Amino acid sequence: MFDRSIKIAPSILSADFANFGAEIRAIEAQGADWVHVDVMDGHFVPNLTFGPPAVKAFRPHVKTFMDVHLMISPVDAYIEAYAEAGADMITAHIEAGPHIHRTLQAIKAQGVKAGVVLNPATPAESVEHILDLCDMVLIMTVNPGFGGQKFIHSGIEKTRKVRAMIGDRPIHIQIDGGITPETAPLVVEAGADVLVAGSAVFKGGSVDAPEVYGANIRAIREAAEGARKAA
Ligand code: DX5
Ligand code: ZN
Q1: Is the Cα torsion angle 50, 53, 58, 59 positive or negative in sign?
Q2: Helix (H) or strand (E) holding 114
Q3: Among 57, 133, 176, 185, which is least packed by CB within 10 angstroms?
Q4: What is the residue-wise DSSP string for 145-205?
């Protein structure tokens, strides 16, 4: 069921890498709506994270929705493996290859939801002719590769443009990078509904102090919903 309510998607890039199962269960118990999995290849981005077997191991712990952000190039050859690993949604970067239209078709062919991702330098207009293949547009507000970076403000105007292009089509807008209770209202006011947050969710907490995750998630959600009410 499509809805534009605010969804908080903690990125497990900021979790304890020795304890993913418990970390996923903790963030979900503390109010996470989706679980965001950052896949990096050391080539498209200067960092390495999770292959399909890792994602498959996360799967049984995720009771909500597993959102797999592929920062890999080439990407097409790996779509089937990440779908089989249990992704509910796969997002691929427009900059990762010459044929994003084909990439989105390949994701859809696996029977999972499909999203396109735009780096900070990629214009909003680049998604105009592929929107009908997308369940989500992910607008990066940092350069992909690492958690804990500073929010890039040009993503706000881009969000506004993409939101206008979407109109009443059932397509989510997700924002990823530097989301905090301070930046969340800026992108929600511009039209975003899914907020990824790594450091702002995990900071100060642990599986032994999961209530901190809950307070962090609530602070982002309340700030975001405040921006909706004010609009
Ligand atoms: C960056 C990743 C993000 C990252 C966000 O390449 O796509 O999902 O984990 O981390 P924060 O919220 O700390 O900016
Ligand atoms: Zn991400």
Answers
A1: positive
A2: strand 113-118
A3: 57
A4: T-SSPPPPTHHHHHHHHHHHHHTTSS-EEEEESS--TTTHHHHHHHT--EEEESHHHHTT-
For a mutational test of ligand 1's pocket, the pick from 50, 67, 152, 176, i.e. the residue with the most ligand atoms closer than 8 A to its C-beta, is 176
Summarised one tens digit per residue, pLDDT across range 176-217 is 999 999 999 999 999 999 999 999 999 999 999 999 999 999
- For residue range 150-159, list pLDDT tens digits in order: 999 999 999 9
- Which ligand 1 atom minimizes the distance to the CA of 197? 12
Decide if 168 is catalytic. no
Q: pLDDT tens digit string along 45-90? A: 999 999 999 999 999 999 999 999 999 999 999 999 999 999 999 9
Is 129 marked as binding a ligand? Answer: no
* Sequence-separated (6 or more) residues with CB below 8 Å from residue 159: 139, 173, 175, 187, 190, 191, 192
**CA–centroid distance, residue 29 to ligand 1 (Å):** 21
Task: Determine the Cα–Cα distance for residues 60 and 223; give it in Å rounded to an integer.
Answer: 31
Q: Does the annotation list 51 as a binding residue?
A: no
Instruction: Locate the ligand 1 atom nearest the alpha carbon of residue 177 and give its number.
Output: 14
